[in-house]
Amino acid sequence: MTVSRNSNTDVLIVGAGPTGLTMACELARHGVTPRIIDKSPTPSVHSKAFGIHARTLELFETMGIVETTLAQGNICNGFDMYNRGKPLAHVIFDTLESRYPYFLILAQSDTEKILNAHMESFGIRVEREKELVGIERTDPGITARLKLKDGSEELIDCSYIAGCDGAHSTSRHLLGLEFKGAPYPNYWLLADCDLDWKYPLHHLSVFIHPSGVTAFFPLYSDRGRLMFELPDATIDMEMAEPTIEDVRRHMNEREIDYKSVGSPNWLAYFKLHHRIVDRYGDG
Ligand SMILES: Cc1cc2nc3c(=O)[nH]c(=O)nc-3n(C[C@H](O)[C@H](O)[C@H](O)COP(=O)(O)OP(=O)(O)OC[C@H]3O[C@@H](n4cnc5c(N)ncnc54)[C@H](O)[C@@H]3O)c2cc1C
Asked: To pair with 224 at 20 to 30 A between CA atoms, which of 72, 123, 164, 172?
């Protein structure tokens, strides 16, 4: 096996999702030039975490990317709740004590593009198809062992490794950190799709019904994320492929008025988890 060694990195960031990209941008803004690696050949294309809250927008302002982010996202300045399709509550976020009294809906893939472009403006690029597989403590720093696409290994000596490698974090496993928590009991059905209906396109809509809660997050003018709580779903759901017909069936059953729903580009069953690592530093 070929092993190459590089030794000039102060900080190695593992993972180029929103956390790793933000870490790289902020280190660069404060005068530290990190290296950033990701095992995946390409960035994710899914909308995943699409809600950007007021405090994050304030931090984006400090970073210098808030205008670009606002220009691409959909401002959501209210929250409407319906009971069996009839209005129940209406909340406006105007009184939030922030320069950005709303939350912004933007696909995570788009947020990552903005962060990536900002990071590249500092001359930093994601080194893709490099996977962290080992961490060795050395004196005075640490050595990261990476697996490369061609099967060879690269060793990087560094002062810090920033583990930004997501929910199944290799760095967390390698350091033996706990990730205590559990899944919530209910499954949800997620559908990113086109939607023609009467409900506001700049508000989050929540529909209460004995069959389960439904939430709608408007991504663009005629497109958004529907999420159906499925209180009676079994574990088999994890294996199943949802269809747009399932979406229509839930809409009808829950008395949610709509003209048309279609063109899904992401349909999935999932469970929410609550978990937290036992500490954020080691060594
Ligand atoms: C299918 C899915 C749907 C989701 N839906 C929602 C949602 O609807 N709402 C919401 O709020 N959140 C959602 N999330 C969660 C949200 O996407 C995450 O909270 C967010 O991505 C976390 O960002 P991150 O940068 O910490 O990690 P990630 O985005 O997971 O990025 C981690 C990166 O590390 C890389 N990596 C992992 N291991 C290694 C390794 N050993 N070496 C090198 N690179 C490595 C991965 O390739 C990845 O690019 C969803 C997540 C998934 C997977």
From this structure: 164
List the structure tokens of 207: 């529909």
**Residue reference for tokens 């279609």:** 262
Q: How far, in Å, from the CA of 49 to the mean position of ligand 1? A: 9
ipTM of the complex as predicted: 0.96
Indicate if 148 and 11 belong to the same structural domain: yes
Tabulate helix, strand, coil % of the chain (nearest 5): 20, 45, 35
Nearest CA to ligand 1 atom 35: 15
Task: Say how many Å lie between the CA of residue 233 and the centre of ligand 1.
Answer: 25
At which of 150, 174, 198 does a domain end? 174
* Helices and strands (DSSP H and E) totals, the chain: 6, 16
CATH (domain of 201)? 3.30.70.2450
Structural domains in the chain (count): 2
Residue 40 domain boundaries: 3-50+107-174
pLDDT digits (tens, 9 = 90+) for 44-60: 998 999 999 999 999 99
Residue 27 lies in a domain: yes
- Which of 53, 108, 228 for mutating ligand 1's site (highest number of atoms within 8 Å of CB)? 108
